[in-house]
Amino acid sequence: MFVTYGLIAAAIIALLYPLFRAATSPLKDVPGPFLARFTRLWFFRSRWNGHAHLDNIALHGKYAKDGQFFAPIVRLGPNMYSISRPDKAVYGIGSKMPKSSWYEGWKHPSPERWTMFPDRNIQRHAETRRKFQSMYSMSSLLHYEEYVESTQDVFQTRLEEMVQDGRTVDMHHWLQCYAFDVIGNITYSRRFGFLDRGEDVENVLASLHSIMSYSTLAGIYSWAHPLLYKLLEKLPGSGAQGRNYIIQYTQRRIREREAERLLQSEKRHDHDHDHQHAPRDFLDITLDASQDPENAMTPYHVSMSNIIAGSDTTAISLSSIFYHLYTNPKSLKKLRQELDTTAGSRTEVGMNSWVAHYDAEIFGADVEEFRPERWIDADGEELKRMEGLFVPFGLGSRTCIGRHVFVFGDL
């Protein structure tokens, strides 16, 4: 009897609590779907249907007031809100606000298997980013260019083969193959083989997509993620099993790379000079860095981050570019014209500083006259333009190294 009453009381509380929370919330006036005041089911359904981004845009437009294009804030759930602009308090550098609980769904339940993207630990994320951000800088990425170019050559060969056959080409599929092989090459110095086989190698694509589908929904009810993961990790095709597969795949690649490094080290001792000049990949750098006990980032973390965060997003971006180009003929035509009129790789371009210094649009109609006061008479914007084109010591990295000695000597 008491058990029955207890269950009834629990059910009543469970029903009344969302109503009480909605009525007493200090943010109860924030607009949004009626259902979202009481439950996250509205947001879950939007994600499930695959058009959450469109629903989000529509909400900000629907609740915009006079003079606004978008409402600055709308409701997605009882304690979940969407802002229309990247407020510095939330997204600014040095912000003390951690990522939301939604990112829990993107983690492996084991605390040791964290990666940078969903990491909610502000201090750990900041320290890790500081140590490894140089790996992803533009100057560092230029060292991986050889890996990208070799993959591009294979991709071009495959496209030319398909054109000769006259077959219809699924560009999204092939761009996925290209993106994964590029990521594989810059991470492990070795392509995964997607372009060679033209198919999902070792079920990696399917596993990755199952992770994405699972994580985007599991994050909405993040408290249930550890239990769900445990229940689903044995179920074929589930996001949990997909993540476990990617983990195993990554660890296998790391072991292979470590064996290759050992062999390469032996070759270097045998004076293999050609290999000494081969570009280092991501795994090389992180394997070296992992020798330092203070480095929290391991080869596993970098590999998982590159594969999950880098490959699919690259493929989607490339697919989107191709789609929009071919559905907007004017843009495609303009792009082709620009490519056709672009100078070749052996074209030499340079500027004679005399020409620059005799530009009347910058220095005035009396540019040929000796009038030093032009530098005093010029207003702020005019002076800025003149100084920008006054280049007696050269520009950029080729600026005269002794320019300060010259100025000091004149003074």
Automatic annotation (TrEMBL):
What is the required cofactor set for this protein?
Answer: heme
Which SUPFAM superfamilies would you find in this protein's record?
Cytochrome P450
Pfam families (alphabetical) = p450
Instruction: Please name the GO terms that the record assigns under molecular function.
Output: heme binding; iron ion binding; monooxygenase activity; oxidoreductase activity, acting on paired donors, with incorporation or reduction of molecular oxygen
Record-listed heme binding positions: C400
Q: Which domain of life is it from?
A: Eukaryota
Transmembrane region positions?
A: none
Keywords annotated in UniProt: Heme, Iron, Metal-binding, Monooxygenase, Oxidoreductase
Question: To which protein family does this belong?
Answer: Belongs to the cytochrome P450 family.
Could you identify this protein by its name?
Cytochrome P450 monooxygenase
The species is Pseudocercospora fijiensis (strain CIRAD86) (Black leaf streak disease fungus)
